[in-house]
UniProtKB/TrEMBL annotation:
UniProt protein name: Rhodanese-like domain-containing protein
UniProtKB keywords: Metal-binding
Record-linked Gene3D superfamilies: Rhodanese-like domain, Ribonuclease Z/Hydroxyacylglutathione hydrolase-like
InterPro entries registered for this protein in UniProt: Metallo-B-lactamas, Mito_Persulfide_Diox, POD-like_MBL-fold, Rhodanese-like_dom, Rhodanese-like_dom_sf, RibonucZ/Hydroxyglut_hydro
Organism listed in the record: Maribacter chungangensis
Pfam families, alphabetized: Lactamase_B (PF00753), Rhodanese (PF00581)
Length: 471
């Protein structure tokens, strides 16, 4: 069977391409649809359907652009109410893609319209299930997102629906079916997803905590809701874009691909109040950056951290990138709904320096330099990793302020006292440093290489603590 997973690691996202006899279907596409169209061209196939498992929260789907460019029919599961033309399928409805069949299985719980698609080969054999956010490898979809859009859909109600969907619709299916989920490890749509991106349903019945045969509904709801962290603020905004519609990516790119000289860039920043977003790596940003710019590097989980740190998807943005990286940055911004780039610095930061314009730097310490300072003076240390990372192991005396919560805890950072920031590897701590610099903090440095490098110093034996071993 020609069913391919197209995985995008920086978003932990999986789309799927199905093709038979010159007809193709795409499941849960990303915003930039060119790769799917090119894939179909290689097979001399026409994209017949775009199947959506649900209204996604963590990215803006490319279904509307695919329909516009290919004429494909958009298909949602039962109860979906999009603000544009789409086919709302019935539970059990079957679609034909060449010699293959795609059967709709309504599986509410993650959201009310959530749907699993059962893929059947040319011989009538059930091959696999494309589960969206209903069933992951090692986990199931969090049931608390829809309540941020529809208030009376409480997480308890949705968790109950999910329990019923799993028991009545998914678990009775054959053990040899392959599970094709929408996400893998790193997505905020679940708690404990595996790094594996496919598995058999039979193995999931044995290993996935949410599929235990002896689990009661009450136990399921309690386990599913325990330990859920607040979803990123951009999630409800992405849901609404996927429901209501959005500008074509071509329009977004045309609007943002405006090269600006240093003088024009500065004028635009002063006139518009746009966010200055520097997408270079942390090391280069530290050596020099435009005042008031925020660093979120393209070489990390760029889109997810943009979504975490920039509250409004309608925020106007001015980009500072490496040469020829501006379109990539705009495309990756658009994946999570940030469609309002209004220009970029032509020639990048080096052109800014050549113009004689002012710039700032961020101090950085190597792990060994930090070790010397730490032993000599015990400076104030802020750990911006997740609470779970901090709880696993951290420096004695370090204060944990997770990066995604930094804007709510600015008062904890002293303006009159030197302090050190660190994360696991230096990516998140530079985001934090840039935000603090933007807000007026001066006497701050970060640790290059972060906690992973610091563990290789002598501090590891005497000054680290793993709470789980302290009995």
């Amino acid at each position: 069977m020609k069913l391919e997973q197209i995985y995008t690691g920086c978003l932990a996202h999986a789309a799927y391409y199905l093709e038979s006899k010159g007809e193709a279907a795409i499941f849960d596409p990303l915003r930039e649809v060119g790769p799917y169209i090119e894939r179909a061209k290689k097979d001399n196939a026409k994209v017949k359907y775009v199947f959506e498992t649900h209204f996604h929260a963590d990215f803006v789907s490319g279904h509307l652009d695919l329909r516009k460019k290919t004429g494909a029919q958009i298909v949602f599961g039962p109860t979906a109410k999009p603000g544009y033309d789409a086919l709302i399928a019935e539970d059990g409805q079957v679609f034909e893609v060449g010699d293959y069949k795609v059967k709709v299985i309504h599986t509410p719980g993650h959201t009310m319209e959530s749907t699993t698609y059962l893929v059947i080969d040319e011989h009538g054999k059930e091959h696999g299930i494309i589960t969206g956010d209903t069933l992951f490898i090692g986990d199931v979809g969090r049931p608390d997102l829809a309540q941020h859009v529809v208030a009376d859909l409480t997480e308890e109600k949705l968790a109950g629906h999910l329990f019923d969907s799993l028991r009545n619709k998914i678990m009775p299916l054959s053990d040899d079916l392959i599970v094709y989920p929408n996400h893998g490890a790193g997505s905020a749509c679940g708690k404990m997803m595996s790094k594996e991106t496919t598995d058999t349903l039979g193995n999931q019945k044995k290993t996935n905590y949410a599929l235990r045969a002896d689990m009661t509904k009450a136990e399921f709801i309690k386990e599913l809701l325990t330990g859920l962290t607040a979803p990123p603020s951009y999630f409800p905004q992405n849901v609404l874009m996927n429901i209501k519609g959005y500008d074509s990516l071509d329009t977004v790119l045309d609007r943002g691909k405006i090269p600006l000289s240093p003088e024009a860039f500065e004028a635009a920043a002063n006139e518009t109040g746009a966010l200055l977003l520097d997408t270079r790596n942390a090391a280069d940003f530290a050596k020099g950056f435009i005042p008031n710019s925020v660093n979120i590097g393209l070489d990390g989980s760029f889109a997810q951290w943009v979504g975490e740190m920039i509250p409004d998807v309608k925020q106007q943005i001015l980009l500072i990138t490496y040469p020829d990286k501006q379109e990539e940055a705009m495309t990756r911004l658009s994946r999570v709904g940030y469609d309002h780039t209004i220009g970029y610095l032509e020639g990048g930061f080096e052109n800014w320096k050549k113009s004689g314009s002012d710039y700032e730097i961020v101090g950085r310490l190597s792990a060994t330099e930090f070790e010397s300072i730490y032993k000599a003076s015990k400076p104030l240390v802020f750990d911006v990793r997740k609470k779970s990372e901090y709880d696993s192991e951290h420096i004695i005396g370090a204060i944990n302020v997770p990066l995604n919560e930094i804007n709510e805890h600015l008062s904890q950072f002293p303006k009159e006292k030197f302090f050190v920031l660190h994360c696991a590897g230096g990516y998140r701590s530079m985001i934090a440093a840039s935000i603090l610099k933007q807000r007026g903090w001066e006497d701050v440095v970060d640790v290059e290489g972060g906690f992973e490098e610091m563990k290789n110093t002598s501090i590891e034996k005497s000054d680290y603590v793993c709470p789980t071993t302290m009995l």
